[in-house]
Specification:
The complex is a heterodimer of chains A (about 600) and B (about 200). By secondary structure, chain A is an all-alpha fold. Chain A has a domain of about 230 residues: Cytochrome C Oxidase, Chain A (Up-down Bundle), CATH 1.20.210. Helices cover about 65% and strands about 0% of the residues of chain A. Chain A has a two-stranded antiparallel ribbon with strand order 1-2. In chain A, strand 1 and strand 2 form a beta hairpin. Chain A is globular. The two termini of chain A are about 45 Å apart. In chain B, helix 2 runs antiparallel to helix 3, helix 2 packs antiparallel against helix 5 and helix 4 packs antiparallel against helix 5. The longest helix of chain B has about 35 residues. The N and C termini of chain B lie far apart (about 70 Å). Chain B has a domain of about 130 residues: Cytochrome c oxidase, subunit III, four-helix bundle (Four Helix Bundle (Hemerythrin (Met), subunit A), Up-down Bundle). With about 200 residues, chain B is mostly helical. Classes of the chains: A mainly alpha (about 600), B mainly alpha (about 200). The interface between A and B is large, with 66 and 44 residues.
Chain lengths: ~600, ~200
């Protein structure tokens, strides 16, 4: 089954034409009612980054409050609202939709070689559901805010007097549907819109990651939806199965919530891992090491995600047997995560590494995810967790995974595909500087919190013992440094829109299909059927000194297809392609990475 | 560059057959979503029902069992699934008139199911069973309401199928609307049987 009408494999149009998806039609309505996945992706991106600004502002406010013990800038109740809003906005409005809905929407169909997602109208509907959910969340601020923590645990959420609980629950309910429909769309797209030649094991790893994520979105999010519904019924009517005075069980709420929210953690991290697979391979110009292992580890993580939720409840009164089982299964998640990390490291080994901005984010990811992952082992260990539970150690752990990994992956992906999305190159030095500032600020903020937590500082506390203050000061300074880094990054990207040089079709030397259409892509993505080859075989990439851009040599690709290297597919070709990639490109790719991509 | 006129059509599929296959897969995935909602609800019910530390009795002693109309509504819903399948068989045979008649019957059976559920609620209400009384009452009202909301959604689909069948839109080659709607409707049928069994066990 194909997706494109005219099969002319040799004639791929990679020259930037005046008619691209940005200029195809004009005016507000053309964007508001667009069915183009690329425009919907861009709209998501703006919405998500706007929410990131709001959530980040709350983070800075709460870090400022924690500068001194007792009151610094606000009351305890206001502080409770700050950390709740920070958590809820960052999780539900930013990280969950950031990669699948924003970058995924833009990239998935192009990478796959399709014209669009399977259900373009449903895609637009998902976006407006997101907007509806965001409006409800915004309204909850006007209705008195909420101070339950982003987890909405009962009985806090059923008894608090803050007026914004029901609106924000409505918001999260609606956002959940947006997520479900995006996942549904992606699964059907991957199954039904692969062009000829795009077999499962030729798909770029980012698509495997999005596919795994979509499975989690579809299976886990409905449970959140019904949980939120039951919680609203309970809060409004003061009855329900979470109410112990009626024979209900408040811990049941935690089971329900974490049955969704632990997989949700993987909704956030798995697509980021997909981005890192792309960045590491493309920017080290080397065949990805262990393609199938990385692909299957995404699926394995998706499967494991459904059977580890109980590790959030080690101190909630679960039975000892349940705690032990959940602890053991939680350790197992380390296996597919480590498989990915080792494979990325092996891809880097002897690769021709271009230290571009996306690669800097990729390397940051490797470092931060390793720390975040390994500290997860501490939290999965039962007796250690009893000490660490609800301390800053856990806060630091999940920020290393959620922010240091998922969000850094998203920002890395944004830099990787920015030239494709906008048709403009950014100032690479400025982008790398921003990345370094973010990296330093992040570690200052959160590594300190590991120490705070292991020494007994509980999370979510407004007040603390004076001996913790020096750590809190360092952490707050780190948060402001991070804010400077993100601001620098934003300035860099905006500047590229205003005065950046024109981006070539293939600025980094990628082989996957999105690099074989113009930057920005045309409305229909490809004017002809794209030729699908091994998307990690960089030996077919050539660098044009005059044009200062890469191109894929399709004759070489056909030759490779006719004489495949060994029978082991990816593994068999990795050495050859990696080496020839190096010999053919090493000097050039370095140039392009640094000097060639901007003036 | 062109001026924008409404939703721009951009069919990502090469042909109708591919598009129809995608529609069916999409509906199957949606059915899994709906099944997860009900699975979670039934599981939550089992957890609280089997809780050995319940403070209050599961059900007040003076509450009577489930209204008989629920049993009747079950028969009606199963019948509607049967008529919808018969409607599809007629469409495949090219019997447009039979297809339209059965599509209409299915729609009205679905409508009757909603009315019967309303009658069951009324009966329980008149027996003075209030949602805040105990978990038995809570389970009855929440589970039936959750299901009937999905049924109402399905009625929109069935209404469209009935209208298009009346227009003669379905035939041996084109009847995907009935198939897609049927996947959802039959799934709701199966889910209702599971829910009804849950309610019956809970009423003991």
């Amino acid at each position: 089954m194909t997706t494109i009408d005219t099969p002319h494999p040799e004639a791929l149009d990679t020259t930037a034409s005046s008619d691209n998806y940005l200029t195809h039609s004009r005016g507000f309505v053309s964007w508001a009612l667009t069915l183009d996945h690329k425009r919907i992706g861009v709209m998501y991106m703006f919405a998500v980054l706007g929410s990131f600004f709001v959530g980040g502002t709350f983070a800075l406010l709460l870090r400022t409050e924690l500068l001194t013990p007792g009151r610094t800038i606000c009351s305890a109740d206001t502080y409770n609202q700050f950390f709740t809003l920070h958590g809820a906005i960052m999780v539900f409005l930013v990280i969950i939709p950031s990669i699948p809905a924003a970058l995924g929407n833009f990239v998935l169909p192009i990478m796959l070689g399709a014209k669009d997602v399977a259900f373009p109208r449903l895609n637009l509907f998902s976006f407006y559901l997101w907007i509806g959910g965001a409006l409800f969340t915004l309204y909850s601020l006007l209705a008195g805010g909420f101070d339950t923590g982003w987890t909405f645990y009962t009985p806090y959420s059923t008894t608090t007097t803050t007026g914004g609980v029901v609106p924000v629950l409505m918001g999260v309910f609606i956002l959940g549907f947006s997520s479900i429909f995006t996942g549904l769309n992606f699964i059907v797209t991957v199954h039904k819109l692969r062009p000829p030649g795009m077999t499962w094991f030729r798909m770029p790893l980012f698509l495997w990651a999005l596919y795994s994520t979509a499975i989690i979105q579809v299976l886990a999010t409905p449970v959140l939806a019904i949980t939120i519904c039951l919680l609203i019924v309970e809060r409004v009517l003061n009855v329900g199965i979470f109410n112990p005075s009626m024979g209900g069980d408040p811990v049941l709420y935690q089971h329900f919530f974490w049955f969704y929210s632990h997989p949700a953690v993987y909704i956030m991290i798995v697509p980021a891992m997909g981005i890192i697979s792309e960045i590491i391979a493309v920017h080290s110009h080397r065949q990805i090491f262990g393609y199938r292992y990385i692909a299957f580890s995404s699926i394995a993580i998706a499967m494991f995600s459904f059977i580890v939720w109980g590790h959030h409840m080690f101190t909630s009164g679960q039975s000892g047997l349940m705690n032990t089982i959940f602890s053991f299964i939680s350790f197992s998640v380390a296996i597919p995560s480590a498989v990915k990390t080792f494979n990325w490291t092996m891809t880097l080994y002897k690769g021709t590494i271009s230290l571009t901005a996306p690669m800097c984010y990729g390397l940051s990811f490797l470092f931060l995810f390793t720390i975040g992952g390994l500290t997860g082992i501490h939290c999965a260990t039962l007796n250690t967790d009893v000490h660490l539970h609800d301390t800053y150690f856990v806060v630091a752990h999940f920020h290393y995974v959620m922010m240091g990994s998922a969000l850094i992956g998203m920002i890395g992906g944004l830099h990787h595909w920015w030239p494709k999305m906008t048709g403009k190159m950014y100032n690479e030095k400025m982008a790398i500087t921003a990345c370094i500032i973010i990296f330093v600020g992040f570690n200052l903020t959160f590594f300190t919190q590991f120490m705070l937590g292991s020494q007994g500082m509980p999370r979510r506390y407004y007040d603390y013992q004076p001996e913790f203050q020096s750590y809190h000061i360092v952490s707050t300074i780190g948060a402001y440094i991070m804010a400077i880094g993100f601001f620098t990054s934003a300035v860099c990207l905006v500047q590229s829109l205003l005065s950046g040089p024109k981006a070539p079709a293939n600025p980094w030397g990628g082989v996957s299909l999105e690099w074989q259409c113009a930057s920005p892509p045309p409305h229909d993505n490809f004017s002809t059927t794209p030729k699908v080859g091994n998307c990690y075989d960089f030996s077919v990439v050539r660098y044009d000194e005059k044009k200062k851009e890469y191109s894929v040599d399709h004759d070489m690709e056909i030759e490779h297809d006719a004489h495949p290297a060994g029978g082991a597919g990816a593994a068999g070709q990795s050495g050859q392609s990696g080496q020839s990639g190096q010999s053919g490109q090493s000097g050039q790719s370095g140039q392009s990475g640094h000097g060639g991509s901007h003036s | 560059m062109s001026r924008f006129h409404g939703f721009p059509e951009k069919d990502p599929f090469k042909d109708t057959l591919s598009s129809e296959r995608a529609d069916r897969l999409g509906m199957w995935i949606f059915v899994i979503v709906v099944a997860m909602v009900f699975a979670a609800t039934i599981l939550g019910y089992i957890v609280v029902r089997l809780n050995p530390h319940m403070v209050l009795p599961w059900r007040a002693a003076n509450t009577s069992g489930l209204p008989l109309t629920l049993a009747l509504s079950t028969v009606v819903l199963v019948s509607s699934s049967a008529t919808l399948h018969a409607c599809l068989v007629r469409a495949r045979r090219g019997d447009s008139a039979g297809c339209a008649r059965l599509a209409n019957i299915t729609y009205w059976l679905g409508f009757a199911f909603v009315l019967l559920q309303g009658e069951a609620w009324w009966t329980m209400w008149m027996r003075d069973v209030k949602i805040a009384d105990d978990l038995y009452a809570w389970t009855f009202y929440v589970l039936t309401a959750l299901h009937v909301i999905h049924i109402v959604g399905g009625l929109f689909g069935l209404g469209t199928v009935a209208r298009r069948a009346s227009e003669g839109a379905y035939g041996p080659l084109h009847h995907n609307g009935i198939v897609v709607c049927g996947i959802y409707w039959h799934a709701l049928d199966v889910i209702w049987i599971a829910l009804y069994a849950t309610l019956l066990i809970g009423s003991r």
